[in-house]
Amino acid sequence: MRRDGIAALEAARAAAFQRLPRATPVEPPVPYPEDTLSYLANVYNGRAAAFYARHGVKVIGAAYESHEELGEVPLMITKHCVRWSLSLCPKQAKGVTGVQGTVRAEPLVLKHGEDTLTLRFDCKPCEMHVVGAMRKNV
Fold this sequence. Notes:
This protein has 2 domains: about 1-70, no CATH class; about 70-135, no CATH class. The model has no long low-confidence stretch (mean pLDDT about 85). The protein is of the alpha+beta class. It is built from 3 helices and 8 strands. The strands form 3 sheets. Strands 3-8-7-6 form a 4-stranded antiparallel sheet, with no helix packed on it. It has helices at about 1-15, 45-55, 80-85, and strands spanning about 35, 60, 70-80, 95-100, 100, 110, 115-120, 125-135. It comes from Hemiselmis andersenii (Cryptophyte alga). This is Peptidase U32 collagenase domain-containing protein.
């Protein structure tokens, strides 16, 4: 009897359920904060490009995977900094001098197989950029 009562309550609830109406899109669409997008926006297909164009973006760069970026580009921007980890940060190691004078951290290069990645540092916002060229198999 308890199971039949619960089943009846669930059926009544399902029958009385009314789906909320879908919200109407805002017209005109809200403008995107920037009017140009680089490969970092990762616009790879036509629907994404149409979305940004509808929201007022005038210049839309293709995604990195589309092989249109030539040369070396920042592949990753991170707050974790190798300079800071090695105690070579200019903000952290003020006045630290080595045998040759002031401690220098650049250029730092990472090598993995045939890939060579260069680390560039933007100390004002405390960011590290991993820079490299397009791999053939991407």
